[in-house]
Amino acid sequence: MSKITVSVNVDSAEELASTILELAATLTPNTGGIFVETDNSDKTETKPTSNNKQEEKADKEEPQKFTKASYFHHPESDSYLAFKKGDLVPTDADFELCKEITKKDYDKGIAAQEEANKKEDPSTDDVPSVVDLRAKAQEKATSPEAKKAIKALLDEFESKSISDVPEDKRVEFLARLEDL
Length: 180
Prior knowledge:
Distance between the termini: 97 Å
Radius of gyration: 34 Å
Number of strands: 5
Mean pLDDT: 80
Oligomer: single chain
Structural class: alpha+beta
Strand content: 15-25%
Number of helices: 6
Largest sheet: 3 strands, antiparallel
Order of helices and strands: HEEHEEEHHHH
Helix content: 40-55%
Low-confidence stretches: 30-46
Number of domains: 3
């Protein structure tokens, strides 16, 4: 029995599996496969070829497309995927792990993830805007004494004006304004 060494260049696991199956078919007796061998510095490359044109067409199938809007959940990464009608169906091995779900479950999952992100990363939504600070200052500045108190508060926060109050100090500044 002789030893055969095969070198294969492929881009995906699917291509590799297909190439291995084709090679196995050429090695099986009575399959009609033809061997093409080239010798490259002690390495033998074996390429199966087919005499059958229909077999070649079957290998070049058109990619599948979604026939309707479809939703999936990938449990390992807790990812949600949405596809429109006409989108190509993914062919990577990772997509095979996805479970098809309803649009309602997709929307719930996305909402839950967004809620979790808000809790993990408090956004600047809780920080009062300059407009909020100005409105509160105008509300409180009803007398000359109140205006002086607001000016003293600005000095205490090392700000020349309300728009100069740093964002990280606005919550405290607003609380102190409300106490005036």
